[in-house]
From TrEMBL:
It comes from Callithrix jacchus (White-tufted-ear marmoset). The gene is SLC66A3. It is found in: Membrane. It is a multi-pass membrane protein. GO terms for cellular component: membrane. InterPro entries: MannP-dilichol_defect-1, PQ-loop_rpt. This is Solute carrier family 66 member 3. Keywords: Membrane, Transmembrane, Transmembrane helix. It comes from the Eukaryota. Pfam families: PQ-loop (PF04193). The lineage of its organism: Eukaryota, Metazoa, Chordata, Craniata, Vertebrata. The keyword Metal-binding does not apply. Its main location: membrane.
Length: 120
């Protein structure tokens, strides 16, 4: 009974996370405008998700404890491309994507780097 309830909670969390940003993405696509989206706040959210996901992977936590973060990161990347697409220049998104992708590897170079990134 407990295992079934825990499984239901895990899968419902994944379902909610998968649908969390879909209304925002569909509204941006329907309006064909990124007005109201803040690039700095989106980048901050992406960085936070990335650091937390890397920390969880680095220390070997079970995947079910962090499986929703890749879904949230993918949705934020879609919103990032929407911002640049509707502002007229998708190529400007590439440095941000490159910085986020390279930070995945930089965070795990030394243990102190990932620990420092997770401090308050």
């Amino acid at each position: 009974m407990e295992a079934a309830l825990l499984g239901l909670c895990n899968w419902s969390t994944l379902g909610v996370c998968a649908a969390l940003k879909l209304p925002q993405i569909s509204a941006v696509l329907a309006a064909r405008n990124a007005r109201g989206l803040s690039l700095p706040s989106l980048l901050l959210e992406l960085a936070g998700f990335l650091v937390f996901l890397r920390y969880q992977c680095y220390y070997g936590y079970p995947p079910l404890t962090y499986l929703e973060y890749p879904i949230l990161i993918a949705q934020d990347v879609i919103l990032l491309f929407c911002i640049f697409h509707f502002n007229g220049n998708v190529k400007q998104a590439m440095p941000y994507v490159a910085a986020l992708a390279s930070s995945w590897f930089v965070l795990a170079l030394q243990k102190w780097i990932i620990d420092l990134a997770m401090q308050e």
